[in-house]
Design goal:
197 residues, alpha+beta, Glutaredoxin, seven-stranded mixed sheet, two-stranded antiparallel ribbon, globular
Length: 197
């Protein structure tokens, strides 16, 4: 089995167990697996939408992002390091992920309101890059540009289920990450994003 096929199979399994499934409780990190009901001191469990697990994780604060490349809207390969210099909100999503699709309109509105202050990158993890731009257009999401990580390298690098959003400071280092769908126009979201400003 090729590496790409193995990755696709792994993400398909993760999608069916994480993206569309209703877990009984938020997943615990490996460090906190012994007591899944008690968050670690540096992480807080955020309220989730009905049927979705969500978690705010600060345990990776200060870490550099994965150095993997992904496709920019012009087709050129870029890395997250290319956006260093201002805060970056990185959202990992896919067209087949229901919670991802739920949160995209709020992410699009946030991208509009944050323009010039925070870069919002919605990076699709779809293996078929040709689906992404038409999908965004059909949903009338005009502020989100079609960045695509067809190899799903960022999901693997962050060990992330979809959707996952990572806040990077202007120094390019992680501030926090959040799993699960979220209203990116909410007061809570604005306060979290302000931490990187």
């Amino acid at each position: 089995m090729s590496c790409r096929s193995a990755i696709a199979c792994l993400l398909a399994v993760l999608a069916t167990t994480a993206c569309d499934r209703t877990p009984a409780a938020p997943q615990a990190s490996q460090d906190n697996a012994a007591d899944a009901t008690t968050p670690a001191p540096d992480e807080a469990t955020a309220p989730a939408a009905p049927g979705a697990a969500a978690k705010l994780d600060r345990s990776h604060k200060g870490e550099a992002p994965p150095t993997v490349g992904f496709a920019a809207p012009d087709g050129k390969t870029v890395t997250l390091a290319a956006f260093k210099g201002k805060p970056v909100l990185v959202n990992l999503w896919a067209t087949w992920c229901a919670p991802c699709v739920v949160e995209l309109p709020t992410l699009d509105r946030a991208a509009t309101s944050l323009a010039g202050k925070v870069t919002v990158l919605a990076i699709s993890q779809d293996s078929d890059a040709a689906k992404v731009a038409p999908f965004l257009a059909a949903k009338k999401l005009t502020a989100l540009r079609p960045y695509v990580d067809a190899k799903m390298a960022l999901s693997l690098g962050y060990q992330a289920n979809l959707p996952t959003t990572v806040m990077l400071g202007s120094d390019g280092r992680e501030v926090w990450r959040r799993s699960g769908d979220f209203d990116w126009t909410s007061a809570e979201a604005q306060a979290l994003i302000a931490e990187a400003s």
